[in-house]
Amino acid sequence: MLLALLFSIGWALAAPLLVRAAGRAAGWVLALGPAALFAGFLAAGGTVGPEASIRETAAWVPTLGVEASFVLDGLSLLFALLVTGLGAVIAVYAGSYLHGHRDLGRFYLLFFAFLSAMLGVVLADNLILLFIFWEGTSLCSYLLVGFKHESTPARTSALQALLVTGAGGLALLAGFLLLGIAGGSFELSVLMERGAAIRSHDLYLPAFLLIALGAFTKSAQVPFHFWLPNAMAAPTPVSAYLHSATMVKAGIYLLARTDPILGGTGLWTWTLAAAGAATMLVGAVGALRHTDLKKVLAYSTITALGTLVVLLGLSYGASIKAAIVFLLVHALYKSALFLVAGSIDHETGTRNVLHLGGLRRAMPLTAAAAVLAGLSMAGLPPLFGFVGKELAYKAKLGVENLGWLLPTIAVTANALTVAAAGILVARPFFGRRRTPDGSQVHEAPLGMWVGPVVIGLVGLAFGLVPGLLYAPVSAAVDAVAGEPVDINLALWYGVNTALYLSLATVALGVAAFAGWTPIRYALLRLRRLSRAGPERAYEAGLDGLFRLAAWQTRFFEGGSVRSYLAATFGVIALAVGGTLLLRGGVSLQPAVLLDGLQALPYETGLVAIVGAAALVAARLRSMLLSITSLGVVGLGLALLFVMMSAPDLAMTQFLVEVLIVVIALGVMQALPLAREVEPRGRRGRDAVLAVAVGATVSMLLLAVLRLPFDATVPQYFLEESVPGGFGRNVVNVILVDFRALDTLGEIAVLAVAAVGAFVVLKLGRPARSRLGPPPVPSVVLRAGARLLLALLVVTSLFMLWRGHNEPGGGFIGGLFAASAVVLYLMAFRQARTERLLRVPPRSALGVGLAVAVGSGLVGVALAGAPFLTGQWVAVGTLKLGTPLLFDVGVFLVVVGFTLTIVLSLERVVAGPPQPPQQPLASPEAAAADRQPARLNGGTTEPAEV
Amino acid sequence: MSHLLVLPVLVPLVTAVTMLLAWRSRRVQRVGSLLGAVALLGTTLWIAAAVWNDGVQHLQVGNWPSPFGITLVADVLAAAMLVIVGVTGACVLVYALGSIDAEREGNGFHALYHLLLMGVCGAFLAGDLFNLYVWFEVLLITSFVLLVLGNDRSQVKGAVSYVLLNLVASLTFLAGVALLYGIAGSLNLADLAVRLPEVDAPGLITTVSMLFLVAFGIKAAVFPLFFWLPAAYHTPPVAVTAIFAGLLTKVGVYALIRVFTLLFTQDVGYTHTILLGVAALTMITGVLGAVTQTDVRKILSFHIVSQIGYMVMGLALFTPLALLGAIFYILHHIIVKTNLFLVGGVAHRLAGDFELKNLGGLYRAKPWLAVLFLIPALSLAGLPPLSGFWAKLVILQAGLEAEAYFAVAAALGAGLLTLVSMTKIWNEAFWKPLPDDRSLSPGTPSLAAMVTPVVLLAAVTLSIGLYAEPLVVLAERSAAELLDTTSYVQAVLGEPPTPPTAEVR
Question: Domain segments of chain B: what residues?
Fold first, then answer.
């Protein structure tokens, strides 16, 4: 069976090539594939008796319990024969119907892909495998219904079918998973033996309902039936195949397949009988409302599907037998009638029965096929349809506590089906000759009439000699019932109640056909009712969904950064604060806090200053003053670090604060920023959030500080700093040795930030600042700057040098050096500073990183030690090692970072570069200089002129 | 100790430094960048092989013993993530070589790209919380600069949201690291895993875990912290968005998985229930966001959010099967999501737009592109037999087994809506005829560089779908490692250490 599937998939993939190779005979050639499969299954069928089934299994995803296991028993054989047999017939038909269509190759690809998926559904023994093929049929159906994808209705209908069956598919998946949990296996053959246990399991109810939902959507049961008539937008061969015999029967197959596992309970019977009966009526009435042949066919298919669901719901020997026979009956006549409708459409250009009549002379063969199929549909002897209907009546009469309700519904629905058969066959082929434009009509080509005729004759043969079907039907019935069922098949069972019902059906049906026109008008007037129907619900649901989605997206993703930030802080307050209250297990004693404050009076005062400055910064409207206030905050923190005996931190903080203020002023000068003032309400909200988050973190911090601290790790650093790291400044040893990888990451961050600022400021052309051009620096500043430059540079090198043992290091040294240049820049502006530097500061970034990485690699190369392992040599009393080199890398990156940003800003402030001060600049050079600041890669940038 | 582990950080760093030093030469940058990406892929495969054969690998950087020095660790999860970084990194780079403009290339695109990869690899390897923080910073700054590179107005606007919200995440993360250090006196993840259960304040640990949840939640773009993602992801060039979409949020999810399996398991009933709720709401809000969009990149961006929900759901359920699902989901998703953006970029190259109403006719004109779109798109929607089906299947099964019906319903609903929005793209860009006033541009030689990675990634998706077993086995082993942390802890710390003596502060 796996082989059959692989062959089928291969056939699908080869289809476009075969179409090209076969030319005019494409249909005939392509039908060979399914025909071969049909023959194969027929041959295999000989070995599948009532008791024997063939099971094949191969490991696929065993870890998840998903096996490639297939089973061929009576039920799957019957379906496999239908799928492949009709597949072959319709493949021939499609070759003529779509002759010369530019997408014929794609069509066959999808058609056979569908065939493969359908075959997989009916052969799979593993539920997950079955589901995979099930979704495959939905997807192929989507692509086939939308075959004429340049028309909007085709696309809409395709999507509708996909969504309805797709939603059902998801329910089905959940149902299968629950079934797997309840039954302990995904193998249908295993689950069948555990049917009783599953039916009494807690998960039975949800599993059954979800699986039924899947089956109902696929098999177009009320209230999910509406997608089927709309799917008639598909090309007719697709409808003939998918919407009569195969895909819509997948749900029926599933119900039949799971009957031994889930069936036989009251829930099963009532759910299926109710849904099926409603579907029968809705379909039967709907069929009479339409004049489009395909819509009539679609609605009558819905009726038939309802009948099948009712019969399976009853779930006893006779009803199962009736279901299997009726399934065959319907597949035969319905596919034939679809093909006939396609032929009529093909030859006359319309499918509207009101414009058709008397075609039997022009299309005698098609008419003959239509008559055979139509009589079968109407359930008249000696056709197979008669057998099917009799069995169905008998089965429904055999139910005790449903009394006459079911038979009444069945008679009504069947009578209307008789009328529908009249509409489909008698109207177009008999009576006065009518075509849309009165033109001459010809018989359909060979490829298009041979199929319906063959199917019609098969129906006649089965009707005359039902015994032909004894073996396959009885095998299928056994499989569904889960036990051998004694059956006999005959055309004539004698005079009994079922026969009387048949007679009544035909009589009523003929009457309804005779009065079709008034009935149709009456039904059209009732169309208002369908506005409240399930299709409307689908549309309203989809519409509502889109509106809900739009609303929630506006709500959450409104576009304001401020509200995003507020929401994020709100979440922090809620999640962290809430958890602290609910789970924290902390009792807060304000006394402890107050004690702490009294013990540290200076620190308390400093914190108060910092807090006040922060508040001021938040309240002020002037950016300049806000920045200054933030500077106060930063310097306050630096002082706090001093008090806590952390000189390295304090120095770094101090230098960073100074540079931040310089840079912030540069930004203000370069980029026109307006400060937005928030409305009062929002400021209040923000204040509440700020307090909530601050309070949460503070409480958490206090609670943590009261826990005993395990100082193993810091103790290790203190002890190892000198013997292992050869440095007395533990902070620096941590930075360049113990945790050098962190530092490496951080200097990479600096390098990237600098590159970012450089590029953005180079590419952007921000508007001129409102602050006006920078003032001419004073002479005093210039003189002082020259002096200080040298001093600061020396200091920076000193800081770098001593950093390993005394407060200092690459970070601080780099900041000193950068401050020196910044001061020079303030005094002498951009051009002279750049001349002073000679190379663009950006290059220090790459070099610094390279030095740092290189220092880390020394140990790898020399000692095979891990990356960043320090290597030391003694030069006299001095210890020199790679961590010191690493610090040089840090120094370079920090200098490069600061200067790149400051100079990039300065360049924006200074405006486009002035032409070089040469008395005779060449025109090209002058033109090049006037180019906008937006530069292509590789061009020299102004800084390097 | 495995020296290999530093390579996924070192290779991109050395590549990027080379790019910085060769700033002027585009040719050197292009060749070097490609070599660097290929070398990274090779490195990650090498590490994965070592982890698969010899178990959890670790490296003490600077040769300082754990828990004092910085540890790099690779377990199966980290190794698998590294390989995916290698694959997507190389694929997207090839795509970028065919699509990124000269201006960006001349302004550091390649250096930034490799530093981004370095950050991602570092985050997956970090065995130390502060080191993880450093890699997050590297990611944040490189992604930010990549976002603004080019300096369009929309880019800057999106980038502002991006950087501000992610800075809040950094702040929260840092606060969490500091508090955890205060509680347990260590930053080393394995060491913390040993120490935290001995701390006599489980409630405080749970509270601190919320800081991590928020910080990584912002990074992973879960509900209700995802604002930055849809605001920014549609603005940069496709190659940049694609690598972001594939990797950045997944670093957040990875970090969530790491800390909520290794560190914060003392109150699973509380923390993981919150995670489950977050997961369900993430799936739904994300996908609802997607169905309203009409720009291909925006649709795809919102789907990132939605899909993160499934991964978090796997973590939240906290059963072996669920974690298996989460891991499978992440690995599958990175490939699929990256690829969808790349396909969107190819469509844009051909049709000149991302807006659905201006697209059309691609099924008729470029059937190969239609196939290349359908594979990742249907995989994203979870249709069989593609990789996404298996991912969803496992998550759903785990959810049903854990009786988390609400979350399962959300997952199913989100799956259907994903299908809705994928068919919307299909409908508009592929089926619908091209609007009359537009035309398709012919293919150019650089198109080949854009399509090749798409084909490769689609092939990966399809192969996982058709034969999921190897990846399932991998995810299963990884899930087992996450649930039983002994192998991780022992690899880093050696034999179980004696309980540390506590000192009173």
Answer: 267-487
